[in-house]
TrEMBL record, chain A:
This is Cytochrome aa3 subunit 2. PANTHER family: CYTOCHROME C OXIDASE SUBUNIT 2, CYTOCHROME C OXIDASE, SUBUNIT II. Residues 95-210 form the Cytochrome oxidase subunit II copper A binding domain. One of its GO terms (biological process) is ATP synthesis coupled electron transport. It comes from the Bacteria. Residues 217-307 form the Cytochrome c domain. It comes from Ancylobacter defluvii. Its main location: membrane. PROSITE patterns: COX2, COX2_CUA, CYTC.
From TrEMBL, chain B:
This is Transmembrane protein. It comes from the Bacteria. The chain crosses the membrane at residues 20-36, 48-71, 91-118. It comes from Ancylobacter defluvii. Keywords: Membrane, Transmembrane, Transmembrane helix.
Amino acid sequence: MLLGACSGPQSALDPAGREASEVALLFWVMLVGAAIIWLVVIGAAMFGGKWQKQPLSERAGLRIVLYGGAVIPTIVLAALLVFGLRLMPMLRAGEPELRITMSGEQYWWRVTYAAPDGSKVESANELRLPAGRAAEITLDSVDVIHSFWIPSLAGKMDMIPGRTNRLVLHPERTGIYRGVCAEFCGRSHAFMAFPVVVMEPAAFEAWLAREAAPALSKADNGAFLANGCGGCHTVRGTQATGSIGPDLTHFADRQSIGAGILPNTPDNRRRFIAETETLKPGVRMPSFGALPPAELGAIAAYLGSLE
Amino acid sequence: MLFRSETPNLWTLLAPPTVWALHFLFCYVAGAIICAKAPEALDELRLAIAAATILALVFIVVAGMQAHRHWGFGSDMPPHDTPTDEDQQHFLGLATMLLCALSAVAVIFGAMPALFIAECMR
Ligand SMILES: [Cu+2]
């Protein structure tokens, strides 16, 4: 039980990327170092209290204060400082092979990939990365401060309105990880997460080409359009061109619904539309629970067809 | 007044931390200006910080040597708390010497990032 947080999709102690490995190494170095210092200090206290019967001379005492209290701590701090400073430039090293913009919005993530041909590919609420390649993530926000954190891949970086921050990720192991918003941003802050899918580079390129294409769905989108979903959501290749909410062009391909809160299953698609405001308090999408069940079903089915 | 002074005073006591403060300000203000106006001049910035660091350390070492002398080269141990001129001298000398050590370490720590930064963050 105690070790429950030490592995899995959202653990900084189970790194899957270069930055996170460095952070984990730093953590272990500090932990072991702190344990050694603690043992020495407690050991000295026990020694002084139990075995050392004669008081030390004043000179010897002052010497212990000088070395134990000033010289050794200074050396340890200097070593840690060098160790930490050395990490920082490495975190941005290397020319990125992929550029992605992520923007935080209460309470979801707008994701834009720069395709190899220079065009932009709109997506949302999920980040896909090729393993073994450097990816530069440009971070900003449109409303309040959010913070972008994928513990398995790297340390966190704030998303600040009016300022653009840069983070370079070097994912190394394929798998599905979890990113979160790490800065309190409102009532549904805790429901602002996203899956991170690290793929083989070839699979990633195929996926990006698919993601760039317009929607292929042949399903009926009448109910979707009639209820005004298209006023806030874009489904490329259809009349839905809104940009207030997440792009839904290939929504069925995503791992999760509503910024990481529910697995993307048929039942959950229906539930998210019907109970939006219950699932995510303060969300900028109205609940459509009042719609007739047949219509809800038609919309959910359409969403499920958006591969 | 600061150097070659026969007796320590509050100015000689405050000088080393003041040098630390000025050095700190210089590093960060110069860093901010270079990164905002001329990010390609990082190497020059590094040199300037190195020069400022050497200058500050020389000053602090000289001040420390003077404080060591005021302390009477450790002829007696603290606490220097009898109301005599000699004890006042020894107290100020020792306090200044300790502040010199602290300031020297702080100056070195403050300059260290200049060795490692690779670029101005955009
Ligand atoms: Cu947030």
